[in-house]
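Justification of computing resources. Each target in the renewal requires a structure prediction run like the one illustrated here; the chain below, 117 residues long, is used simply to show the kind of job we budget for.
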Amino acid sequence: QVQLVESGGGLVQPGGSLRLSCAASGSRFSSNAMGWYRQAPGKQRQLVAAITGGGSTNYADSVKGRFTISRDNAKKTVYLQMNSLKPEDTAVYYCKLTSRATGNDYWGQGTQVTVSS
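Resulting structure tokens:
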């Protein structure tokens, strides 16, 4: 059973930084693609950043140059470093694992990020 647990969310002022973590269990982590998504109130969940098992990354245009996704396969953890945060980054952030073996998606419970002065 794959489980994902996010942490690191919170309240930060505009221009500040946060680092989100997503710890995985129950999967062969290193071969699976991982992604961070976010959902603001009244809006659809959208991709923020993704990283393949091989380390290739892609980002939403709105976060390019500010956010960095990375992974530590030994710790089975994926990170999202968020810098120069803006109020429009406020959302619940979710971690997703896509199983290379089955194609199934697994989601974490989400962590709230609030950017406000």
